[in-house]
Amino acid sequence: MKPVQVMFDEALLARLDASSEVKRDGRSAVLRRAVAEYLRRRRREDIAESYRHAYGKDRGLGKEWTGWEEQGSWPPS
Question: How confident is the chain (77 residues) per 10-residue block, as mean pLDDT?
Answer without folding.
Answer: 96 98 98 98 95 77 72 73
